[in-house]
Each structure stands twice: as structure tokens, then as C-alpha cells.
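Fold this complex.
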Amino acid sequence: MEAVAKDISVATDAFGGNKIEATNVQVYYGDAHAIKDVSVKISERSVTSFIGPSGCGKSTFLRCINRMNDTIDGCRVDGTITLDNEDIYDKRVDPVQLRARVGMVFQKPNPFPKSIYDNVAYGPRIHGMVRGKDETDELVQSSLKRAGLWEEVKDRLLEPGTGLSGGQQQRLCIARAIATRPEVLLMDEPCSALDPIATAIIEELIDELRENFTICIVTHSMQQAARVSQKTAFFHLGKLIEEGPTEEIFTNPRDKKTQDYITGRIG
Amino acid sequence: MNAGLLALLVVVIAAAGFILGRRRSLAIVDGEIIRLHSLPGYYGQSVFLFAAAPALLVMLVWMLAQPAIIDSRVSALIPIESIEEGSSLGLIMSDVRRIADGLDIVVAQGRLSEDQVQNMRADLTDVRDRLADVGVALGSNVKQAVFVAAKEYRQLTGFARLAMSVVVLVLALAGAVFAYAKISPDYRARNVSETAIKSLLILSSTVAILTTVGIVLSLVFETVEFFRLYPAQDFFLSAVWNPQFRGGSDLGILPLLWGTLFVSFIALAFAVPIGMMAAIYLAEYATPAVRSVVKPAIEVLAGIPTIVYGLFALITVGPLLRDYLAQPLGLGSSSSSVLTAGLVMGIMLIPFVSSLSDDVINAVPQAMRDGSYGLGATRSETVRQVILPAALPGIVGAILLAASRAIGETMIVVMGAGAAAKLSLNPFEAMTTITVKIVSQLTGDTEFASPETLVAFALGLSLFIVTLGLNIIALYVVRKYREQYE
Amino acid sequence: MSADAATTISLLKPDSRTRRRNAAEARFRSYGIAAIVISVFALVFLLSSVLTNGLSAFTQTFLVMDVTLDAAVLDKSGNRDIEEMKKVTTIGYGTFLQKAVIAELEAKGISTEGVSAAEVGGLLSKEASGQLRDKVLADPGLLGKTIRFETYATGRVDGYFKGRVTMESAALDKNTSPEQLELADRMRAAGLLTVSFNPGFLFGPDASELRPESAGLGIAILGSAYMMILVLVMALPIGVAASIYLEEFAARNRFTDIIEVNIANLAAVPSIVFGILGLALFINFVGLPQSTPVVGALVLTLMTLPTIIIATRASLKSVPPSIREAALGVGASKMQTVFHHVLPLAMPGILTGTIIGMAQALGETAPLLLIGMVAFVRDYPAAPPEGFFDPAAALPVQVYNWTQRADPAFVERASGAIIVLLVFLLIMNIIAIVLRRRFERRW
Ligand SMILES: Nc1ncnc2c1ncn2[C@@H]1O[C@H](COP(=O)(O)OP(=O)(O)O)[C@@H](O)[C@H]1O
Ligand SMILES: [Mg+2]
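Structure:
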């Protein structure tokens, strides 16, 4: 099936061009084989969700896309992943530069113990994207606005980010991530530590962000996948079992395992 | 009967009580243990406790109080005028004790009978010679007054010892009988024994408080004594330290304080950057293989006693600095110097700083690092802009603890810094510190009650207060920091 | 949004800013490596300096020769009466030995040119005449016989063979002369002087300033051993009892807070302050004898307690609550639960902490100086328990003591003593590590 998918040209994709193409990706933690031969394409300016039982390798695969796995001792990645047709595991690629283009939001909100302003300005500053205070102010403001947090924090930008509520913190982290103007946004269960209301706000936000960003989201909630994503990939025991338009996966899964999972028989 | 034997006897009585008590509890219920409130062993234990605890406690108190009481009674027998120039009551009393011990040996070896000793007179017999025969050496001939005191001392001690033996044994037996009689199926022996054990546990945990109280009291008492002999403002404000054997000393703390701070500053200036960079490298960069070698190596440095560092300063670093730096630069010709002590103390502090920093850095959650790497920060950017600011309070705490260590360190400065109290800015000169002077004033030959000796307690109190202050602030800061991530 | 602008930059060509950031990264990393290198170098330098200075302390120059014990000189009355024989002093034996050495040199055909008779005698340790005298007085039957007599050569000759003393320094030294050293060379060639392992360094008592060659560590090792025994006996039960109370029984209240703060602070109080406490409390107030293991051990116990308590509490904490619940669930009392289940499981950790605390105590010097353990002690303390109250030295204090002496031969001995100390510490730490490995439990 992957071989066939490879031949289908970018243009035939229903959601515009393929931003990311992963081919025969293998990931090992020491001797443990965590991702087994996964090939997948991710379309530009759409939301792709990764679902599957816990421990199946969703996070691991997601972290491959911005080479966060490089920071883990003993983790090895084989195969190719391209971003705009450039192999991100090429020796010449600096992961630091890559990560400016492929941002990440984590499961638990992790604002730095700095002010809200400094949290958002951190990325642009280290990448040298802003010159002077005015530019920074502007970028911080626009990022917070896009993350839907501006109204709530505009009067307390200099207070510590850790003082916000969980949902606000997560939106701050999203603002922080989009401040470096990434093309791709990776989100690893961004709502799992939040209450339903905060979750709804973030889901809405993801839907808005889709206009400008290519988004990959890991979620353990099938409803969430159904609500926010256009494409869905189902992982099981390190393998990609099935991928396709979200509607199709949920209404008409081709694989027995997928069916079992979405009907709650495995997981 | 000597104390060890007596204690042993008490334990034997208690042990016998244990066995008998256990047996009795079994006998009352005809071996049906289920009818007893507690297991038979607990009945034994309760007898053991009642027998041993009061007896041993009384014995301990007795032994602590007895010498003081007897000394005061015996020293009253020594006429003031018999105390010669250059001697003191304390010295005479130690002679008294030595003579009394000697007489004990003489009698024990059967060289003289008890009566003969009683009738012996120092002005008629050569006591010194007699005692020398049994291996007790005396500095001078014995005066009759002293000899009388010694005989009195011997008698009182003998009597007290006997009285103690009797009292203690009676107590032990009485306790055993009392507890033995109480044994019945309803007697809650386990609760009794557990309460006793729990009091022991509480008692043990108060040792920490008692130690602090002991430290404070011993420092404060003698310091007050010192300030009675020497004006406090001179001590705190005088820039001259010049103790004299015959009074008229200048005992200003300032030059010592300066030396202490100078050495500590050099040590910290050396140890803090190196220790922190080492900790950062090990926590954030090193491969597991490197870490598994280097970390223990640095910990080895922490396990090396300071006397080793002192010797290193004295025989290696001091001469090296003198020959290759101080003399060529014309800055000094002494191998003991502030720089010698400071550098070596810095080496000693590296593992201290690095292991504390390591704890602090590792306490910063991985999520912080992930957040920063996820935005495309390099490792050093992450360390400098996220981890260190997050860890700052903890690191400040670590540095304060290191400073307190440096200020209180003794052997390295005793062997590496020198003994001259000076207010100088030249690190190649020998200077001295508070701790060095505590050692030299308390190990010298000056009389205990002189300001020259007592000043050591004032120095010790100053040192204690400074280090305690640093520790409390450091512990507070570190605790607050830990809470932030818990 | 300028997201599109970024796409034009290829990932394969790092921009200049990234290169600069990577350079900063490399620099930062090299600081870290430098810090590690400096630390490890300091460790290696420290240890190698001690080793190179101290290894030679374990060997010593001996003079070995046959001596005929001339009865006419050593027992003038001729009736082997000990009291009579005692009248020949060590000085008499010294002259006798000096003659014997000269005779031996003549017999072996070794020239003594330029060296006076007294200087020949001066090649021997000042200890030698006393040694021979003790030997004869112990067994008068030896008189008239020829015995093999082994004694130390003087520290200067020993230093010459070990490279500490040179011909140049000897020329300036009133205690030895280049001619003497040349004679020593000839004697060594003839087998009269040998350099070999010296058990006296490990087992002998300390010696005075003038005879470094015979100074040994025996009393110091014994004193340290006595203290360690006492520290173990006092600190372990008290520390464990205190920890059990604080960890298992104590309610969170003011009282336990005070104890906790006290323990944390005591762990950081300078050791010299404990020395002052020992002096004021145990010696001046209670009246225990100075410079004895019992006082040293009391002080070291108070210093070691915080270490043991902290380790024990960590160890108790690591026993999972499920064990306690299980025991309480079958009706055990709290006390039974702790003593039957929790404590045994925590024991390896407690012992490891105790050994590490004792290792610290073994190397502690400053407080022992204040309680008089610097005193010169030449008699071995008796066997315990009386021996606990006899004056003794301690290993680290002995090191300090020797560094305070003028003769450079003592530097070698101080370094040698450090090696002995480090070997003991190494053994203790290895035991602690083995214990930890052996009994380490993962829940
Ligand atoms: N840092 C790591 N080291 C070793 N194994 C890991 C690590 N992270 C994840 N794994 C293993 O890889 C597999 C996939 O984990 P993960 O990607 O976190 O799963 P998911 O996110 O789908 O729950 C699991 O079996 C997990 O145990
Ligand atoms: Mg996951």
C-alpha cells in the first residue's frame, strides 16, 4: 500500500500539497524497536491526527518530525522524512533550524518560569527573528492574539507564565510555538491535561490555525480526532495500520484492528 | 566494683528478669498463649526494662555528678597558701587524683596494707618514690596537705563507688521484682514495652537539639567570660591581632576575618564556575559512558579528607606557587599564602558545588528542556536561558552552602594559609583565618582562663553565627526552590 | 503571515546565524569539558603528589650486622644481675655499638677515610643503642654471644638513598656530611645497609623530632580504630532510633520541625565548632581525660549523626507504604511493623550511610586537635574498654603532627600516613558500594 501511495503525485491529494513525507521510518530505543516501517504523507494546511492505544508509538513518531528524538540518549531513527522535499535527517540539516520551522506543543503545558512576554519572545529572540523592542512587542502581541490569549493576558504580560490556569498555559505554549513562524505545528495530546471547557477552546483554536499551519496532533480521544482533523492515521504496536481521510477511517475502516480500536475493543 | 562490671551485672539481672518474666507469663496461662494480652516475649521485655532502665539511668547521672561533688569537697582541704607560684588548684587536684590512683595500685599489689596507707605521712615517707615503684610518676615531692587531700579523695571515691553499686543493684532488683509481680494475662505488656521503646526513640531524636544547645552554651559561656576580661569593642573593631603570653594582647578579629573572607573568596571564585560548568556538562552534554566515569571521579574528590588537601597545599601547591609565580613576579616568598589555601580549598569545593548544582539542575523538569528544544534552542541556549534561570535559587543556595563550608574549613588553612594576621591585598602573602587562630589559641600552652585562650570561644561563636546564618538562608532558599517543582 | 517567506530557505544550507549559534554552542561545550578536565586533573595531581611523596615511607634503610655482645663491657660486675646491668646506660651501648660498627667496617675492608668515629656511630638511628639495651636486658643470656642485630640507619642516610638528601644539602647540614654519605654508599654496596619494607612504620609508635626513621603509625591506627568502634556503637543506634521516630512516628509539629532544622544545620556546622564543644563539654565540664579515644569518639559521633540520620530516613522512605499497610493489615502494631518489616528492608541503605558517615569521621582532623589529640603519645593504649580512656593519637592528627616537625623526613612519613588513611577510606567506601549493589532493591 505504501508503495502505491508513493507513486500518487502530490497534486492528487485532496487537501493540497504534501508538506511532509515519511518513508520507511524505523525508530529504536536501544534495542527496542518502537516504530516499525512507517510511511505516511501529511498534507499542507490541514490537521492530521495520530490515534492508537497508548505505547503504540504516536509520540515517538511525532517527535521524529522535528528531530526531538535527537535529544534522547540511545534513540536511533532510520528511513527518510522530508519537509518540502528536503530530507530532514540529512547530515547537513541543523535540527535547531528545523525546529524553528516545525514547532511543538507538549502534553503538559510547560511554560518557562519567565514572564508571559518572555515566554513568547523566547523563540524569536534565539532565532534572531526580531530586532528591537517594537518588533518583539508586535510579534508577541500577534502570536498571543492568534493563540486567542491576548485579551486575557494583555494587562499582565510581565507576570510569570506559570501563574496562568492550565488551559491558558497551554495556549501560551501554542503562542510561544507559533511566534517562531513555523510551517508545521506538532501537538502531542495538547488537551489531555485540561478540562473540557479549556479543551473546547483549544480545539477551536486548532481549527483556526489550520489556515496557516500544517498541524499534526496526537490524541487519545477519537472524538477529538473526528472533530479537529481532516486526516487520521491509526498506529498499533509501532506500526501504521491505516491512514486516510478522517471520515473514512471512522465510518468505514479497512482494517480489522482499526475497527476494533474505534469501537473500543482494543486500547 | 568498676562501672563496666556494674553495668554488666545490671544487664545480667535484667536478662534473667526477661527469661523469668517470659516463663511466668507462659506459666500463668498454662502455655495457652492466646489467653495472654501480649506475646510472652513482651512480658519478658517489660521486666527487662523495669530492671535495666532506671538502674542504668541512675548510674549514668551518678557517674556524671560524682567527680564534681567529690572535687569540691576535697579541694576545700587544700589551703590556698599551699598553692605555689605557677601552679593552680586544677593542677594540684590532678596531682591529688594521681596520688589517690597510685595508692589504690599500691594496695592492690599488696605492697602496703590499707592501714599502712592510712597511717602514712608525706613528710615522713617518700610518697613519690613509693608511687614511682608502681608506675605512677609525680612531678615533684608530695606535700602533706596534698597527701591528706589525696587520702580523703580516695576514701570518698571508694565510699561513693560502693554506695553507687549498692543503689544501682537494689534499683535493678527492685525494678525486676516489681515488673515480675505485675505479670498477669490482662497486663498490657506490649504497650508498656512499646511505650518505653518509643520514649527511647524520642530521646534519640532530641540528641540533635541537645547538640545544638551544647554548642551554643559552651560557646556563649566562655565568650561572656572572655568579654569580661577583654573589651568587646576591641575584639570586634581592632585591626591588630597580637596575642602575648604575659597579658596586654591585642585580640582584634578584623585581620582574621579579612583572611577568612579572602581565602573563601578565592576558593569560591575557583570552585563555583568550574563546579557549575562540570555539573552542567555532566547533566546536559556528557554521554552516559563519560558520566559514569567522571561523576564518581568527582565524587572521590568529595570523599577525600581535608587533611589530605592540607598536606597537598603544604608540600605541593604552596612551593609550586611560590617558585613559579610569587618569586618570579616579586610578590612574595612564602609558600603558605592566601592563594595556596584558596586554590586548594577551591579544589575541595568543586565536588561540593558540582553535586549540589547537579541536584538543582536535575530538579528542573525535563518538560522545560523539551519546551526549549522544541522551539529550536540549542543546548547552551537552553541551559543559559531556561535551566539556569529556573535553577537560580537552588544554585544560590548551593553557593551559600559552599561559602559556609569555606569559611569554616580548618585544616587547609592551618596548613596552607599561614599564621600571620595581616590586612593585605596581596594573595601571595601568608595570612591567617578565624579557624587557624581557634586551633592555635586552644592548642597552645596558655592558661585556660586567660583572654588569649578564651578568645578562641569568641572566635568560635562568631564563626558559628556566620555559618549558621548562611546555612539557614541556604536551606530556606533551596527548600523554596524544591517546592516550586513539587 | 510570513510563514511562506521561511519556506524559501533551504534546510540543507545553514544560515549564518545558525552557524554563529553553533559556534557559541561549541564554545559553551568546551567550557564544560575544560571544567571536567580541570577537576579530573586536580584529582590526579592530588593523588599522584601524595603517592610520589609517600610511597617511600613504607621502606626504610636498615643496618644489619653481626654484633658480639661483649660481657666485659655490658655487664661489668659479671654476675648477670639485671639491676647491675641497668647501670650501663644507652650512652654506654651507643659507644659499644659505634666500636662494633667500626670493627665491622674494618673487617669488611671498607675505608672510613674522612669520617670520625663519632660520625660512623652517627650513621645509626639514635634509637639503636636503646634497642640493643632492651634486647640485652630482656635476655641476659645473650651476653657473650654473637647476634644478628638489625636497626634503622639515621634519617639522613635514609633520605640520601631515597633522594631527599643530596651531597649539596649534606654539605650545609650539621647533622651529616658528604663523607658520611659516601661511606653509606660503600656500606650499602657491601650489604651492610639495605633498603627494605619497614613494618615499624605501620605498627611502631611515634618517635621524637630527632628520630624520624623510627616514627610509626601504630598508636594512631589503634586510636583511630578505637574511635571508629565507639562511633559505630554510639552513632548507629542513636541515628537509627532518631530516624525511625522522625520518619515513622513523629507527627508534623513544632517539636519535629525544630529537630529537622537542627539536623540540617548540624550537618553544615564547621567541624572545628564540634571540637570546641568537645573541649568545653566533655573535657572541661564532664572531666573526661584529654586526648583519649572516648572523647574523640563522642565528638565524632555528634558530627556523624546527621549523616546517618539523613541516610537512614531516605532509606526508610524508600520502603513502599504497601509493606506497612500489609503488616498493619494483619494486626501488627505500628512498632512491630517498623521493627519486623520496614527496618530490615531499609538496613542496607542504613549501613551504607553509616559507613560513609564513619569514613568522614575517620578523616576528620580539626576537632581532634582541640581535644588534645596532638599530644605526643608513645605508649600504646590498653585493650578496650580501659584503652578507650588511655591517651592515643589518630591517623589524620598524626599527619598534621608530622607536618609540624622541622625534619623533612617527616613530610615523607606524613604522606605515607595519608596513603594509609586513604586505603582505609577506600576499603570503607568499597564495602559501602558492595552493600548497596548487593542489596539494592527496585520496587
Ligand atoms: N525515552 C524512551 N526510552 C525508551 N523507550 C521509550 C522512550 N519513549 C518511549 N519509549 C517506548 O516506545 C514505545 C512508544 O512510546 P510512545 O511513543 O510514547 O507511545 P504513545 O505516545 O503512543 O503512547 C513504548 O513502548 C515506550 O515504552
Ligand atoms: Mg504519548
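Residues 3-205 of chain B form one domain.
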